[in-house]
Design goal:
Blueprint lengths: L2 H16 L7 E2 L1 H4 L8 E5 L3 H6 L1 E2 L3 E2 L2 H5 L16 H10 L7 E5 L5 H12 L5 E4 L2 H8 L1 H25 L3 H22 L4 E2 L23 E2 L1 H14 L5 E5 L3 H4 L18 E2 L17 H10 L7 E5 L6 H11 L5 E4 L2 H5 L10
Parallel strand pairs: 1-6, 2-4, 2-5, 5-6, 8-12, 9-10, 9-11, 11-12
Antiparallel strand pairs: 3-7
GO molecular function: thiosulfate-cyanide sulfurtransferase activity
Pfam families: Rhodanese (PF00581)
InterPro entries: Rhodanese-like_dom, Rhodanese-like_dom_sf, Thiosulfate_sulfurtransferase
Length: about 350
C-alpha cells in the first residue's frame, strides 16, 4: 500500500471514529436535482414569503423558519417552538401537503440559517427521512442548463429594450418598430424557457392535504435547550472558565453582541456572560455559494476560540432557529456530539430581567 493510499485510509478511519457528518444529512445539488418532481420527495424552503416568491425550486412549499420554530398559539413570535402545540403544528404541516412517507429536502437561498433552523425543527419532530440541501437555490440554479440560456436571453432582452428607448428618443420610429418586433420574438422564447426552469418565482402551488403526524411522544429535544439549562451552563463557565465542561456560542453580529443594535421587542442589549462569538457568516461559503465551508476551514474557526469536543455546547442568536441553528449544524457536521440550540435566544434572555448579561 502506497503512502498516499495509507494517508487516505487513515483519514477515512479518523472521520468515522469521530462521527463527522454522521448525524446531519446533507445532500448535494447534483443529487437533489435528480429528485425534483418525484411524488415521494418534497422540497421545502425555509425562507420568508417575499424571498420564496422571488426564487424557489420548482414544486416547493414554503415554511418560514421563524414562523414554524418560534410561534406561539396565537401565531405571534414567542420563545416556545411550535412543537409545544402538537395539534396546531400537525394541522399547519398537513395543510402544506407534507406526507409522513416523503423525503423532505430543506433549503434556503444558499446562506444556510433558514434551512438549518427548519431542518432542526423537523428533526425534533422525529422525522428521519430528511436532508439539508448544501447550496440551496443557487446550487440548483448553477446546474440547470436552461437557466444559463434564460440568463443569456434576458441580457439580450435588456439590450433591445434600451435600443428601443434610444431609437424612440431620436424619433427613429421605423428602427424602434423593427427592434420591437425582435423583442416580441425574443420574449416568446424567454417565456418558453422560463416554463422549463428548475428555479421559479411566484407563490407556492396548492397542495392536497398531507398526512404528516406530530406525535408528542416522539418529539426529540436532544439538540434543544431552554433558558434554565443555559443559565446553569453560563454560571459554570463563569466559575471554571476555559476548564468548564460547557461552552456558549453567540452567532449574531458584533453590534448585537455589544448591545449597540437595538432589537424591537427586546428590553436589553448585550450577550450571555462568557459566551464566545462566531458570527454565522463565518461558516457559510460565500465564494462558492455553499451553506457550509469545508470541514477543515470550519474546524479552524472553532479551534481558534477554544471549543472542545468534550464540552456541551449551546448556540444561540436572536430567536435561536436560524443563525444559532446554522452554527449548531456546523458543529455537528464536525463531530461535536453534545450540541444544543437555545431556542429562546436573545429574545428571551434579553427580556428576562433577572438574568445577567455582558456587553
Amino acid at each position: 500500500m502506497t503512502k498516499s493510499i495509507q494517508r487516505v485510509v487513515a483519514i477515512f478511519i479518523y472521520l468515522i471514529s469521530m462521527g463527522i457528518g454522521a448525524e446531519i444529512k446533507l445532500i448535494k445539488p447534483q443529487e437533489a436535482i435528480r429528485l425534483i418532481g418525484r411524488d415521494d420527495v418534497l422540497f421545502i424552503s425555509g425562507e420568508n414569503r417575499a424571498a420564496f416568491q422571488n426564487s424557489h425550486i420548482v414544486g416547493s412549499i414554503n415554511i418560514y423558519t421563524h414562523d414554524i420554530c418560534h410561534t406561539d398559539d396565537s401565531r405571534d413570535i414567542s420563545y416556545a417552538p411550535l412543537y409545544d402545540y402538537p395539534k396546531k403544528s400537525e394541522k399547519y404541516i398537513q395543510e402544506k401537503g407534507v406526507k409522513k412517507s416523503q423525503l423532505l429536502i430543506i433549503y434556503d437561498d444558499f446562506h444556510g440559517p433558514h434551512a438549518s433552523g427548519l431542518y432542526g425543527y423537523f428533526e425534533s419532530l422525529g422525522h428521519e427521512d430528511i436532508r439539508l440541501l448544501d447550496g440551496g437555490v443557487e446550487g440548483i440554479k448553477r446546474l440547470d442548463p436552461n437557466q444559463q440560456l434564460y440568463d443569456k436571453l434576458k441580457s439580450q432582452e435588456k439590450r433591445l429594450k434600451l435600443q428601443i428607448e434610444v431609437a424612440t428618443k431620436e424619433r427613429k420610429y421605423k428602427d424602434a418598430a423593427s427592434i420591437t418586433s425582435k423583442l416580441e420574438s425574443l420574449t416568446a422564447k424567454i417565456n418558453l424557457i422560463k416554463s422549463q426552469l428548475l428555479i421559479e418565482d411566484g407563490d407556492e402551488r396548492s397542495m392536497t392535504k398531507g398526512d404528516f403526524i406530530v406525535d408528542i411522544t416522539k418529539v426529540v429535544k436532544t439538540h434543544l435547550a431552554d433558558i434554565d439549562e443555559v443559565k446553569r451552563a453560563s454560571d459554570d463557565i463563569v466559575k471554571y472558565g476555559d476548564e468548564s465542561r460547557f461552552a456558549i456560542i453567540d452567532s449574531r453580529s458584533m453590534d448585537e453582541i455589544i448591545g449597540k443594535e437595538k432589537i424591537a421587542g427586546v428590553l436589553r442589549g448585550g450577550h450571555i456572560p462568557r459566551a464566545k462569538f462566531v458570527e454565522w457568516k463565518k461558516i457559510t461559503d460565500f465564494k462558492n455559494k455553499k451553506s457550509f465551508k469545508s470541514l477543515e476551514d470550519m474546524q479552524k474557526i472553532f479551534d481558534k476560540i477554544g471549543i472542545r469536543k468534550d464540552q456541551t455546547i449551546y448556540t444561540y442568536s436572536h430567536y435561536g432557529a436560524g443563525r444559532g441553528s446554522h452554527i449548531a449544524m456546523a458543529l455537528r457536521l464536525l463531530g461535536y456530539k453534545s450540541v444544543k440550540v437555545y431556542s429562546g435566544g436573545w429574545n428571551e434572555w434579553g427580556n428576562s430581567l433577572d438574568y445577567p448579561l455582558s456587553r
